[in-house]
Amino acid sequence: MASFTKISEDETPSIIVHSDHKIAKINDNIYGGFTEHMGRCIYGGIYDPGNPLSDEHGFRKDVIEAMKDLNVPVVRYPGGNFVATYHWLDGVGPKEQRPKRPELAWLGIESNEFGTDEFMKWCEVVGTDPYLCLNFGTGTLDEALGWLEYCNSTQDTYYANLRRKNGREEPYNVKYWALGNECWGPWQVAQLTKEDYAKKAYQWAKALKLLDPTITLILCGETGYSSWDYYVLKECVKWDVHGLGGDRTRSLIDMHSIHIYTADKEHLPNATAPRAAERAIQMTSALIDLARIENGVPETVPKQTICFDEWNVWDPIRAPGEQGAEEKYTLSDALAVSVFLNAFIRQAKDMGMANIAQSVNVISPLMTSKTGILKQTIWWPLLLFSKYMRGHSVAVNVKSPEYEGRTNPKWIRGTIETPFLDVCAARCEDGWVGLAVANVSEDRGFEVEVKGVAEGGVKVYTVGGESVHVVNTESEEKVGIKESEWDGKGKFTFGKHSFTLLRWKV
Ligand code: AHR
Asked: Which EC numbers characterise this protein's activity in its record (predicted)?
């Protein structure tokens, strides 16, 4: 949580960090990833058999290394829009017998060479938890139950035995399951009305939890501030012990998913756009409260958290999905990503998970070629956050001038502020405090009084570049991390259009 006081351009900005004032536990899962059968994310991204850079499973080793560096705790799969026509049975068993299918989300052909067992193996190698999304388009409840049984059952039953036959004795114990993806979207194969979705999601949730009451179920929301969100929460966040093995401290729905992509051609509307995501989190949290109040859900049932399972900078006109959505990210986009991540930390009390969309090649910080891997600008703040901004979010007070121009979306103005210094702070379990500061001003560095830092030995990590337009290419990495030290005395200068992480031990 951060309090913001707007000051004039000629006053001195200040940041006060209260490292002993913990606000909420930061769920590690906010650093989650997402791999969809789309463009070059799976094929040519995480899976590239025959390439000398791949291992014996056909997994790209450089991608695995990057995922490990990022310490990605959970990865969503197999879509996205792709999942609306995906039949998981097509992707298991002997590869030569797997059917090729027309793919209707991105208009390609799906070979099914990579499926559930390959994804589970990849997760194991990376050291991450799988998060599966169910087909709410052409899929059936029977099929969904079969998939859950295949992944999690230890019984002597058909799909559990099929898994054994396919070479895997132990269950995969997949914890996270989403009840469809963007079912509200007109681009969706078998789009649903909110009434139809809510009815279906509730009945599926009951059946899925009867089969495995230990799973975490994620409801398909929209942006977090729509009538769809209100309606499906109201209909599904109920106190109902059916399917919970009589457990009165849980509910069928554990999380509510929202998606927001931001982008603008101009730097400041672009870098401040993720403030809409922060407002969306606040609104979703209120809608969850409202559903619980209206439905009389007792406080013994933990509040449903937000699963922000698609977020990033993306302009689908600039980088169309059907062409693989290979966005080239600028420094401005890296600042936008920093503002997204700051928001997740500030709103930690409501955040159960967030998944950058996507992990490789498709609107991604990582781009593979046949010969190597490129780290785009947005990789660097993501890496710093994932490495150092864990533990608890702590209170921070910020005084800064504010950007007052056009915003995208327009409604940001009047609902949430857009300070030039966008700040959050966290205290890790090991006693290190992290202060993350995105200075989104294109032309002004700020000399800031920073209070609450330990004097001496402040580590400084800066992500910056010549201009907000710079991008990283295979031949030149213009944006990376610069490391230095600060003695913690006097004022600290946050350079124009830069992201800075200060770290000290309390
Ligand atoms: O991440 C790309 C696409 O964006 C996903 O498939 C879909 O869920 C969203 O519209």
From this structure: 3.2.1.55
